[in-house]
Amino acid sequence: MDACVMVWNMKPQMRAYRFAGHKDAVTCVQFSPSGHLLASASRDKTVRLWVPSVKGESTVFRAHTGTVRSVSFSSDGQTLVTASDDKTIKVWTVHRQKFLFSLSQHINWVRSARFSPDGRLIVSASDDKTVKLWDKTSRECVHSFCEHGGYVNYVEFHPSGTCVAAAGTDNTVKVWDIRTHKLLQHYQVHSAAVNGLSFHPSGNYLITASSDSTLKILDLLEGRLLYTLHGHQGPATCVNFSRTGDHFASAGSDQQVMVWRTNFDRVDYSAVLEQRCEADSSVPLAQVLDASSHTAVVSPGADPHQAELDRVPAALTQTLQHIIAQLDVLTQTVAILEQRLTLTEDKLKECMEHQSMVRASASDPQG
């Protein structure tokens, strides 16, 4: 790990920025809501606040006494929350760069911490196998979710602020209602630890990244697996939707950062939701947004594209057509990957032939 922060400009022919300053591996990065600042956390126990420009100027927060695993902005961009191996969560002001307070009821490393959309709550995930919900004003832990069977790697608020999703080393993703404290959805779709997740801005989808090398897109409306994406050669370590939801980026231990384009955010689910809620009061979207007590469990054995046709409302036709179109996109992606693999094999073959010629020349006494 090179301890640097890289910023790529998505516009054609625009240069990338490489920021040096951290003394050890960078564990987390996040842009401020305005995009004018970039925060990074590091194993060097600091957090840096960068101005993403040619100069790459930064200020340093001497944040913790252990590795800083997570850094995140509040929705108004005025506050930072950090999480660390020193078992604490700390809150800071951005512009004055002042430490405000610390939260310290976890009994093991804290992997992740996030503000709620309204900034009133903080959620944290830890190696003590708990997800804790904190009141920012009183600085008290108001609830602990203890259902994970392993370390909790990552946690995030739903855009509505009514629930949280957590990813764990027990290969699962769990979604809880923060008002009733009930488990809403339990996804068992990965074959290895889940390292990261991200809600789509619409709140209808959740994407996950796992050590099984895959990304998976979950439909929260239906409570099911939509797509499995293969691209990384090794563990996928993190994933995040763009603010508009039309792209998402993933990174892995293969040293690759991939940017993907979405199109499922264009589907209008309002008619679908209205009909499904009238027909069935326990549909998963109602569980997510209306705090139904029923828990939905999705496992790898369930076929994500198989439906009972006699129960599908007419309004789902558009959704099914969209799924078919998305499968076409995935097929094209696979074709591109196959082309890249072929090119790599051709280059390898050329190198081997060249080495053979060199060896032949070296062994030829007349050469």
Description of the structure:
This protein has about 375 residues and is α+β, with helices and mostly antiparallel strands. The protein is built from 3 helices and 26 strands. Strands 15-16-17-18-26 form a 5-stranded mixed beta sheet, covered by helices on one side. It has a 4-stranded antiparallel beta sheet with strand order 3-4-5-6, with no helix packed on it. A 4-stranded antiparallel beta sheet has the order 7-8-9-10, with no helix packed on it. It is globular and about 85 Å long. About 10% of the residues have low confidence.
Secondary structure class reads: alpha+beta
State the helical fraction: 10-25%
First-last Cα distance: 44 Å
Please compute the radius of gyration using only Cα atoms. Answer: 23 Å
Order of helices and strands: EEEEEEEEEEEEEEEEEEEEEEEEEHHEH
Total helical elements: 3
The strand line-up of the biggest sheet is: 15-16-17-18-26
**Strand content bin:** 35-45%
Low-confidence stretches are 267-283, 285-294, 301-311
What coarse outline follows from CA principal-axis ratios? globular
Number of strands: 26
Quaternary structure type: single chain
In short:
It contains 3 helices and 26 strands. With 367 residues, it is an alpha+beta fold.
